[in-house]
Amino acid sequence: MKVIETDRLILRWLSTDDAAFILELLNDPSWLRFIGDKGVRTLENARNYILTGPMDMYSKLGFGLYLAELKDGRIPIGICGLIKRDSLEDVDIGFAFLSRFQSKGYAYEAASATMAYGIEQLGLNRILGITSKDNYDSSRLLEKIGMTFERIVILPHETEELKLFSSTF
């Protein structure tokens, strides 16, 4: 199901048909460095990740992480969407793109449109963003889409300090 369309991208619900792409994305060097190893090593692991993550969130909340694909050729390049974590008080924006599609403005395009969707379609009045302390590109992107650094947090059952950004409307 298509959710958001921008000049160059379509953001749509993930399905188990996207398992090969998710397998590649979750093993991309930038994902492993900044988000962490989710242990997804097979197509079956990837299908399970989609079912228990994004698809579960769609059914419970009506939103989640979306597949970002190029309009031209429908090539999957990343994910971007809104997530409700039990450990954070508000919805947060999440994004990750394959290394070969980074630094081309796609993440900004997807994240900007996702923020607008959250405000205009979902009626959110506050959106968060979290990133590892050394992920300078993601920190800059969160600031570019209108977020400000709020504080350092450690999520439950984790040890890594993360930078928490927010935007209130």
TrEMBL record:
Residues 9-166 form the N-acetyltransferase domain. This is RimJ/RimL family protein N-acetyltransferase. It comes from Neobacillus ginsengisoli. Gene3D superfamilies: 3.40.630.30. The lineage of its organism: Bacteria, Bacillati, Bacillota, Bacilli, Bacillales. InterPro entries: Acyl_CoA_acyltransferase, GNAT_dom, N-acetyltransferase. Pfam families: Acetyltransf_3. PANTHER family: GNAT FAMILY, PUTATIVE (AFU_ORTHOLOGUE AFUA_3G00765)-RELATED-RELATED (PTHR43792), N-ACETYLTRANSFERASE DOMAIN-CONTAINING PROTEIN (PTHR43792:SF1).
